[in-house]
Design brief:
The complex is a heterodimer. Chain A is of the alpha/beta class. Chain A folds into 2 domains: 180 residues, P-loop containing nucleotide triphosphate hydrolases (Rossmann fold, 3-Layer(aba) Sandwich); 65 residues, no CATH class. Helix content of chain A is 33%, strand content 24%. The longest helix of chain A is centred in the C-terminal third of the chain and has 18 residues. Chain A starts with 5 loop residues before the first strand and ends in a 12-residue tail after the last helix. Chain B is mostly helical. Chain B has one domain: MetI-like (MetI-like fold, Orthogonal Bundle). Chain B has 11 helices and no strands. Chain B is globular and about 75 Å long. The termini of chain B are close together. The relative contact order of chain B is 0.14. Classes of the chains: A alpha/beta, B mainly alpha.
Chain lengths: 266, 265
């Protein structure tokens, strides 16, 4: 793993947001350095408002860092690029497009031909367990199925790096576990590199090779935990391992969960 | 009042009840005024109005006047909607332009559009153009405001999704912003369809010798209340047709909107 190429790295990245009216500035993230190697899945965990989503937006090139640089596959990120695709808590499916047309969105924007788009979309729809629903419209699908479609759309452009911002946090507990399982399988099969933002401590341990813990704003990485457990491609299996408990305890301690003065800040 | 869900459960019994309301209304119109000693030249009964309708068909070129009014409505509605859409989209994608123009647009929106009718007649004479122009002006605002509001309300995450796929500005507009505005656009078009009739009638009332608005003033001058009723009914039919056309187009275009949100009236 150590010899694998770095797919995305943040080098001493700081992002400051300025308010035009008051002239006040808010530092969302400060001096963040991280690197994710090919095929690695890394979770980012931290309190609300610690700048996790800001990091992700800089990774996808939607924001540019105030200081520092982001590289994807060795090239500096100066704007949105095809190597990176993101997936949010909201499925962001376009209600006027069928599921197939939604999965094709990125390919269509990037100018792929109709036949190629169709073929790729149908293959991914089947892979994401949505076979038979390709001609349905988003409002006809459940939340879990819509998020599967969003995953298919993200994978359709064949990105080098997937950035995911709490993709399952709006789902019920059981649906969430099933989708985690599918995601982990798919990431392992396709050997994708992923940065996964979550609030869910167990989710971060079940899905990733490493967990990065962020501090409160201005967010910075305070700890890196290597998840030294088997079954990264099978989170249901990994959840059952007794070691998960001690990892969760360590994360709770780092995030000060349960300490009176910070209760309610998560 | 009703929605598509209710429409689909429109039973034979409800149709019968609806027709019964019409019959009761016509019967009341026919006989109640007589009982209350209201003379026929004040409130002509439906039979009198029907007879006047047949007389106007034969002697007053009713269909020609109706056709002229209908064409003015269609022309005013289409041109006003297109203008509203274009300006709405243009201001929508350029917030700075909107800020610069908004006080004037607001002033023009508040000004009663029908009050411009005499001015347009003075400028363009007794032709169809001043009528169409009033309709354009009155249709323009609801369409523009709906489009503008909708384009402002597009989820920024959707726009970011497009950007993350390296979409061009045009792709973001055509694939994300424009389709998002369609449901509010159609709400604006429904309002516009009924307003277009008002604009055209006011234009015709002010000047000229064509159209149902002219027949309204002509009937008034003659003290022919039945004629006025016929003109009102024909105008209503034009309005219903225009509105119905928008609703039909909306059903085809917005087939993806969940049924419960799909208003038909």
């Amino acid at each position: 793993m150590d010899s694998a190429a770095v797919r995305i790295d943040f080098n001493n990245v700081t992002k400051v947001f300025g308010s035009r009216q008051s002239g006040e500035t808010v530092t969302a993230v400060k001096n963040v350095t991280l690197a994710i190697r090919d095929g690695e899945v890394v979770s980012l965990i931290g309190p609300s408002g610690c700048g996790k989503s800001t990091l992700l937006n800089m990774g996808s090139g939607l924001y540019l860092p105030s200081e520092g640089v982001v590289h994807v596959d060795g090239k500096q990120v100066t704007g949105p690029n095809r190597q990176v695709a993101f997936m949010l808590q909201k499925d962001l499916l376009l209600p006027w497009r069928s599921i197939r047309a939604n999965v094709e969105l990125g390919l269509e924007i990037q100018g792929a031909g109709a036949a190629e788009r169709r073929e790729k979309a149908l293959a991914l729809i089947t892979k994401c367990h949505l076979g038979g629903f390709e001609n349905h419209f988003p409002h006809q699908l459940s939340g879990g199925m819509r998020q599967r479609a969003a995953l298919a759309r993200t994978l359709a452009v064949d990105p080098l790096v997937l950035l995911m911002d709490e993709p399952f946090s709006a789902l019920d507990a059981q649906t969430k576990m099933i989708l985690q399982q599918d995601l982990a399988r798919t990431l392992a099969e396709e050997k994708k590199t992923a940065l996964f933002i979550t609030h869910d401590l167990v989710e971060s341990i079940a899905l990733s090779d490493r967990v990065l813990v962020m501090s409160r704003r201005p967010g910075t990485i305070i700890e890196e935990i290597v998840v030294d457990l088997p079954h990264r491609d099978d989170p249901m299996q990994r959840r059952r391992l007794p070691e998960v408990g001690s990892y969760v305890a360590r994360l709770m301690e780092l995030l000060h969960i349960g300490e009176p003065e910070t209760a309610g800040h998560i | 009042m009703s929605n598509a869900a209710a429409n689909s459960s429109f039973t034979a019994g409800m149709v019968a009840a609806s027709l019964a309301v019409l019959v009761i209304f016509l019967a009341a119109w026919q006989w109640l005024p007589g009982l209350a000693n209201i003379p026929e030249f004040i409130l002509p009964p439906p039979t009198k109005v029907w007879a006047e309708f047949l007389r106007m068909l034969a002697n007053e070129k009713l269909m020609t006047h109706t056709g002229i009014t209908a064409l003015e409505v269609v022309a005013g509605f289409i041109l006003g909607s297109l203008l509203g859409m274009i300006i709405g989209f243009a201001l929508g994608v350029s917030p700075k332009t909107e800020l610069v123009l908004s006080p004037y647009l607001l002033a023009l929106q508040i000004a009663p559009k029908v009050a411009f009718a005499p001015l347009f007649v003075m400028w363009m004479g007794f032709t169809v153009y001043p009528k169409i122009l009033v309709a354009i002006l009155i249709v323009f605002f609801p369409v523009m405001v709906n489009v503008l509001t909708a384009i402002r309300a597009v989820d920024p995450d959707l726009v970011n999704l497009g950007r993350s796929f390296s979409a061009s500005r045009w792709q973001i507009f055509s694939m994300i912003e424009y389709p998002t505005t369609l449901p509010p656009l159609f709400s604006g078009l429904r309002i516009g369809a009924t307003l277009a009739v008002i604009g055209v009638v006011v234009g015709e009332l002010v000047g000229g010798n064509m159209g149902l608005g002219y027949l309204l003033t002509f009937g008034e001058g003659q003290g022919n209340t039945a004629m006025v009723f016929v003109a009102i009914i024909m105008l209503t039919i034009i309005g219903i047709a225009a509105y119905g056309a928008v609703v039909l187009a909306e059903r085809r275009v917005l087939h993806w909107v969940p049924r419960a949100q799909h208003q038909t009236v």
